[in-house]
Amino acid sequence: MTAADDAARRPEVVAFDVNETLLDLAPVRATLVELGQPEHVLPAVFSRTLLTGFAAATAGTWTSFRDAFLAALAQGTDLAPAARTQVADAFTELAPHPDVEPALRRLTAAGVRAVALTHGSAAVAEAGLERGGVSPLVERVLSSEVIRTWKPARAVYLWAAGVCDVPPGAMGLVAAHGWDVHGALRAGLGAAWFPRSERTYPEVFDRRALVADDLAGAVDALLALPPR
User: Is residue 228 part of a domain?
Assistant: First the structure.
């Protein structure tokens, strides 16, 4: 069986992206609005945060998600340093989207392990999952801060599979970001995409992605794969 065939089978572990995929960024948006910024600022700042982290990783350096976010705020808004810190602190108030708990319960009922995989702070992700009462459904939170790089670097997905003690092909990824799904597929994982802030899965990315209408559909698509 080839690695591609292996990844096209039902995973033993499903890793979920955290920001936007599991946790709602509404508290961050609300803080920006409270400080006089228009609502559309958050998508631009969030995208610039990712660009900063991706660029650092590609160049062989590293920055934390929080520092990249603060830098993006400095570039994309006129907020003073104290206000930028206030916005960054709002990440500690995140909670899961309403569709997260039923999706995780679907996996649990099917006997598939669920983990969270972020390039942000593990503590922030853990607090958000706890706030929504879904922590018992998630085996562990993995942050690529441990290996000082960012998704979609291949090393992150291989590291996550190793920590979970499964080969890459036995791990699936669910994310609302096409770049994350693309990275997982290129690393030998199975992967499913669904829309939140993105409208479509980019055609320039790996076409083996399972594309669903929502989070429940993404989970069901992975569970519907042939057994290993």
Answer: no
Give the largest Cα separation in the chain, rounded: 56
211 in helix, strand or coil?
A: strand
What are 172-200's pLDDT values in tens digits? Answer: 999 999 999 999 999 999 999 999 999 99
One domain, residues 37 and 13? no
3-state helix, strand and coil shares in percent for the chain, rounded to the nearest 5: 50, 15, 35
- In whole angstroms, give the CA distance from residue 36 to residue 46: 17
DSSP codes of every residue in 103-122: HHHHHHHTT-EEEEEESS-H
Other beta carbons within 10 angstroms of residue 13's beta carbon come to: 21
Q: Could you tell me what percent of the chain has a pLDDT over 70?
A: 97
Q: For residues 175 and 22, is the Cβ–Cβ distance under 8 A?
A: no
- The answer to whether residues 7 and 189 touch, using CB atoms and an 8 Å cutoff, is yes
Residue 73's pLDDT is 98
- Residue 52: domain span: 26-91
Q: Alpha-carbon distance 194 to 174, whole Å?
A: 8
Q: Is this prediction's pTM over 0.85?
A: yes
Residue 46 exposure: Cα atoms within 13 Å on the Cβ side: 18
